[in-house]
Amino acid sequence: MTTPTNERHSSLGFGNLWAVVMSAEKPKNTSESVLLHPLDTAAAPEPELLCIFGTGDLGRSLGQRLLQSGYRVVYGSRRPTSCGPLPQGTQVMSHAAAAQSASVVFVCVHRENYEFLETLAPQLRGKVLVDVSNNLKKNLYPEANAEYLQRLIPGAQVVKAFNTLSAWALQNGPSDANRQVFLCGNSAEANQAVAKTATKLGFTVLDRGSLSAARELEDFPLQLFPEWRLPLRVAVGLIAALFFYVLIRDVIYAKVELGKDISFRIMVSLANKVFPIVSLIMLSLCYLPGVIAAFLQLYRGTKYKRFPDWLDRWMLCRKQLGLVALGLAFLHVLYTLIIPIRYYVKFRIAASTVLQMKENQTKEFNTVWAWQGDSFYSTGILGFGMFLLLGITSLPSVTNALSWREFNFIQSKLGYLTVFLCTFHTYLYGWNKFLRPSSYKWNTPPAFMLSLVLPTVVMVLKLLLLLPCVDRRLTRIRQGWERTDPKDDSRKSLLA
Amino acid sequence: MTTPTNERHSSLGFGNLWAVVMSAEKPKNTSESVLLHPLDTAAAPEPELLCIFGTGDLGRSLGQRLLQSGYRVVYGSRRPTSCGPLPQGTQVMSHAAAAQSASVVFVCVHRENYEFLETLAPQLRGKVLVDVSNNLKKNLYPEANAEYLQRLIPGAQVVKAFNTLSAWALQNGPSDANRQVFLCGNSAEANQAVAKTATKLGFTVLDRGSLSAARELEDFPLQLFPEWRLPLRVAVGLIAALFFYVLIRDVIYAKVELGKDISFRIMVSLANKVFPIVSLIMLSLCYLPGVIAAFLQLYRGTKYKRFPDWLDRWMLCRKQLGLVALGLAFLHVLYTLIIPIRYYVKFRIAASTVLQMKENQTKEFNTVWAWQGDSFYSTGILGFGMFLLLGITSLPSVTNALSWREFNFIQSKLGYLTVFLCTFHTYLYGWNKFLRPSSYKWNTPPAFMLSLVLPTVVMVLKLLLLLPCVDRRLTRIRQGWERTDPKDDSRKSLLA
Amino acid sequence: MTTPTNERHSSLGFGNLWAVVMSAEKPKNTSESVLLHPLDTAAAPEPELLCIFGTGDLGRSLGQRLLQSGYRVVYGSRRPTSCGPLPQGTQVMSHAAAAQSASVVFVCVHRENYEFLETLAPQLRGKVLVDVSNNLKKNLYPEANAEYLQRLIPGAQVVKAFNTLSAWALQNGPSDANRQVFLCGNSAEANQAVAKTATKLGFTVLDRGSLSAARELEDFPLQLFPEWRLPLRVAVGLIAALFFYVLIRDVIYAKVELGKDISFRIMVSLANKVFPIVSLIMLSLCYLPGVIAAFLQLYRGTKYKRFPDWLDRWMLCRKQLGLVALGLAFLHVLYTLIIPIRYYVKFRIAASTVLQMKENQTKEFNTVWAWQGDSFYSTGILGFGMFLLLGITSLPSVTNALSWREFNFIQSKLGYLTVFLCTFHTYLYGWNKFLRPSSYKWNTPPAFMLSLVLPTVVMVLKLLLLLPCVDRRLTRIRQGWERTDPKDDSRKSLLA
């Protein structure tokens, strides 16, 4: 960077531009000034001076890091003489004096105390103000902190940045989830100046555009898996409900009707009934909204009509629904694979072999059972393999490497194939249990039958959508065609 | 951003630059004008006006999204009075009038209709034209749509962008595979202006350089796993061929020669023969081209000679070959682990125990068998673990975090270790089957022997390359050394 | 970058800026000049000319790629007439002449030969010098190559770039671990000019800030998993130590005391003892430093005091410790799941069934054993599932998608849950072995007991930290509060 005539701009990232402009004024000795200038540039320049308002924890952490990265730091404080220990090598001044000395000011002050900054408006005019603040809760204030700051000091260029980092990362540099600095602001130059500092501190910068994105950035560090809540609640609800259903039908039924205590089956057998059932239900919940949306579009004859809110929200958490289902399917696989090393299973097999020996009967090998069993396992394995593929392609870096057409092919085509394989796997499990009266203990259907309802519905509806006549119409609607219906004037309003 | 004196530039992302330039004219009050300017900047500015040519589906979707993101939108249409419903709050004008009112124009028109834009050249001079078009097929036209547009209107700055997004994403914002906006164009300022809009719409921008990249961007949404086709075809071909081979040797042989129906074994036993065999073959196909390339370089005595096309193409799909092989190895693991819960296996074990009892024989524990079996499983598990490690490091985000040396260490050193472990695992499976005549039913070798050919070749060739004298020469060639051969003048031509 | 008088600079990405500046001089016909300029820009421009110093391997590879990407290339060489074959279509000149003809110069020369460049200082003034060099070892020189180059030619703008790519990637374009070009330099304009070229060559650019980052970039290609070394050494050391411990207690004990040869158990049984034990120890090593750090902060009464070096280094490799532990846990899972298909296990089960038959005894089903066994497997499966979740969230792209709070929730809350589940799993394995004298062969405790020490310590310490009074104080300290201790003046010094 050049040594700009006006020191104030040195950190704004367009010092060189300034040099260009200055030389443009004197066209006669342009080349001279050009040649001389880079010379200065290369000479070890005095480190840039940055200003921090606030000597609290955040200010201290940030200041220490800035010092370590080769900046000079000056603090602005209400009580410059009694503000507690600060990183060695920094200066403390009044706010006004500190602001005057640097062109970038980090505001490490709570939003509640922003008001006093208004009095510094003259000193802050033309400065880059970096708002690093966060709130304790969402929607505490009507406007974002950074927007409030910009309103207070319209003459400054407010940039929202660094607020998504932990104080630890601010002090010690990037680590794990603290590698990216999101920033936004109305001035591209101010954004770039802050981006440069963030890069020098070792962070990767993501420019999120104008200051209207500040609210989003301020909400980011407060969020705790917002889009995972609904799917997790659905999962927990279904697991609890099915656990009790299976507990009653298996353990309590055995106790009451047969007088046997098989409560030890809770740990593995019951878990291995509940997990796959909930997994299959959630997998179909993942594909159901898409089918509903298609029918809604067909019914309405337009794609421009907004979906009802519940459907919108449902569609937005499909990925999470699917991933929770995949996690449960994974547990199901492990629970299934440990079956033969369980004490209970080994005991039963030995007992059955001994019995077979004692009764001296020769069991016939049943080829149909072998076919059924092996097909059951094979569809399960293939279904789980496909499911895993869906999961891998939903990793952010894999998704980003795919074109939209490729992503759609996997999540839609291969997704329905997964639903089919997993449903078929469950039907094969059922096999002859559907017609056997002993399946219906206390007149209730076995739990696996409950899990078949939704995926069967999804597959039937999807097959309907694949009928050529339906498919053709849907394709036209999705290409923008609308059914013109003279009586229906709701169409226009939704474009609002 | 300000409303600059020259409205045309307002969206080009250098409004502030303009302010600086203006102030450069009046050096006396520079500081004043600079200080005053940001003041305007901060004042809530009138939303920027963007122009959209075309009122079709794409234009409507994009317009709606731009409105929601705080832009004002004006449509340019051939028939401004009868162009169907448009998002509320937008205006429709003639193309000429619309173009005049904004500095960025989104061309949401099919390439077939670009020609009429030529008549608007005067109005579009100096504007940023965003080409969002896609074609239905690759190579439909001799030049990219965006380059064609640039040729039609040389006075405008054409930026190719947004074409990789689905219409849904354009209307509703980023989701899954629609998070990144690729753009390219000859003017850095125009690119940045479009990047700014894309960022405000919530997308992440990837600048792909000059307009010569437009063809690539236009081909992107049409592609459906181009680099996966060859590996998948190889996999399907091998699976089919080996399935029939195993089917004949196992099921049909048993039927014909022994009169037994073991067709039920198709579902699991046969699958669990075919998958690991194809997996091992494909894993060695993944390392074979590297070895061939090394021998070719040794033979030619230079690294500057281009490889034959088939070798080039083969080397480019090594990653995909390896990942398909990993998928098959994963299926092999699952098929193996469910063995003990299969009806057929449980039946056979019980029968054998009963038989053992009846004949009152005491089987001797065979330590050699125990060693062989356990080594077989252990090498399999370790090989699969290493294979999985190779797979994980080929995830884009993991690969990006590695230095070239690290990536090479894993994919090459650990890769050959994986080949060794998996091949050794298969040899241990063979064990004494190689010399047993009963292995060669109908005079054909067992399928697993077929799978050993390629990996053995790869390992032998690799060992040759590791010989110090060969290795030294290869290293020199790869550092740029060339064997000077007076008769060989093909060397120079390949540098062309 | 400075003001170029000379058209030569038009390709540096601010040709249009120049147009604006020029128009600023003549305010009367601004619009005209602005309108004319883009016209030229758009007209198919002559390809930009780039200069490469050095005709070695790197220079040739880079030159070939630049040519293919549409640049013109001129080489600077000491002996322009006898410098060996170069890509067809390029020119070779003296260094001085070549430097004069282009504005960007790639220095493909070994650092040892940089000195001669000093004589070219006048010709290189104002040029962008791209330093692509690497050293053979770290810390070979007191300053980074690029900084040395900048010192030699202060009038040029040195940009460090392309050095992290393999020569293969420089010649053939991006592939796998060669997709990103890291660059750094003191001039934002020079950086951008180089970034533009890198983008055109197909790479993704990551700007790492000022030239002070050059050392880091030069060290990058030399590194071979530096942060994995300590964890891998710990893992190998623990595996070796425990292997011998288990070997002595199991195999040698059986040989010496019982006269039985069970050495075949090494391959699976011993591995499946060592791997889970080391995995659990390393998992607790992953959470131990965090607990120690908290107690240290409590003891010191401040968070501003730097941790001892050993603790710092330990904390920095927690992620790697955890991932190695996960890998071992994965092997443990596979080794466990193949248990029932092992020859040894099948033999033993058959023998036990036969024995049971012979002795005509009826074994009673032990419900307590069933509970214990099933709980043992269930906690193991759940623990492994949680562990896998921790592993997935540490994939870079997943970590980046999480807010700091979310990452913390998973790695801390769910992490301690994982430690608890895995420790409980091991206690369930122990069950009644703790009190059984036969467990203590040769008066040594079983290996699994050793693995329980550390996780138990971690959990007890963590529970102490969760006590409300301790937790409150720790929270205050982490918010910046410091215990004021008149005798303790070490506090200030650490802020240095």
UniProtKB/TrEMBL annotation, chains A, B, C:
GO BP term, example: iron ion transport
Domain Ferric oxidoreductase: 277-410
Annotated coiled-coil segments of the chain: none
Transmembrane intervals: 230-248, 274-299, 320-345, 381-402, 414-432, 447-470
Keyword terms, alphabetized: Copper, Endosome, FAD, Flavoprotein, Ion transport, Iron, Iron transport, Membrane, Metal-binding, Oxidoreductase, Transmembrane, Transmembrane helix, Transport
Positions of the Pyrroline-5-carboxylate reductase catalytic N-terminal domain: 51-135
A GO molecular function held by the record: cupric reductase (NADH) activity
Cofactor: heme b; FAD
Cellular compartment(s): Endosome membrane
Classification via Pfam families: F420_oxidored (PF03807), Ferric_reduct (PF01794)
A Gene Ontology cellular-component term: plasma membrane
Reaction catalysis annotation: 2 Cu(+) + NADP(+) + H(+) = 2 Cu(2+) + NADPH; 2 Fe(2+) + NADP(+) + H(+) = 2 Fe(3+) + NADPH
Membrane topology type: Multi-pass membrane protein
The family this protein is said to belong to: Belongs to the STEAP family.
Name used for this protein in its record: Putative metalloreductase STEAP4
Organism encoding this protein: Scophthalmus maximus (Turbot)
